[in-house]
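Final report, Chapter 2: Outcomes

The project's central promise was a pipeline that accepts a single protein chain and returns its three-dimensional structure in a standardized token representation, suitable for archiving and comparison. That pipeline is now operational. To close this chapter, we reproduce one record exactly as it appears in the project archive, with the input sequence first and the structure output second.
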Amino acid sequence: MTDVVFQAAPTARQHTVADIVQHIVQQTVANRMEPGDRFPPERQLVEQLGVGRTVLRDAMKCLNVLGFVEVRQGDGTYLAEAGATLLSRTVSWGLLLGGRQAWELVEARHFVEVALARLAAQRRTEDDIAAIDRCLDRMATPDSADEFAKAEGEFHAAIAAASHNAPLQSVFHAVMNLLDGRIQHVIRRAEDVHIVVDQYRAIADAIEAGDERMASAKMAGHIAYVTALLGESLAERAEAAPVS
């Protein structure tokens, strides 16, 4: 493909790693990059994005861990193949879901799923809508907590599939593979799962209507709700940890 040009990141007093992760993901979509396409060199990216070298490197490390990019030593950084191995099985909660790293992963989930909901509203097919609705029906009348959790995960996956963007789907699955157990735990502890189902129904309605802004807003609201529950869970986990 022709040389990729990334637009500057939105002006901010201080760009966070999560800000740049979100912006890079959005720019790969805007540039219609395909798996195997090469990113501009670091020096060029720093100039194009208007950010510091350190924050850019940290963002690329995050995207590399998630399987969104592939760093080839001496050759550059490439958009990863969809479905590539996302993370070694030996790296899990102990390294990635403690402290700051946990929240950066939660932030990454927010940015990716909001983008997926917007794209799903643009590109959904009748089959996509049917798959999303089937998950909603299962969540409305679950046989067990495990069945609800399974349908909940498949609902998010159905929205990702409806985006018809393979690289973003790959990132989504990487994030959810890491957060899955914790997310299921906090969903189960929600005082009223009907709140969650109502949130999902509003997201699905916006996607079916092709309302990109509403789909994004409803997904952002849902993730904010679950993130608040996750914060309580992580705080309890930290309090329960033995003091060395």
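Archive annotation: The longest strand covers residues 69-72.
This record, like all others produced under the grant, will remain available to the consortium after the project formally closes.
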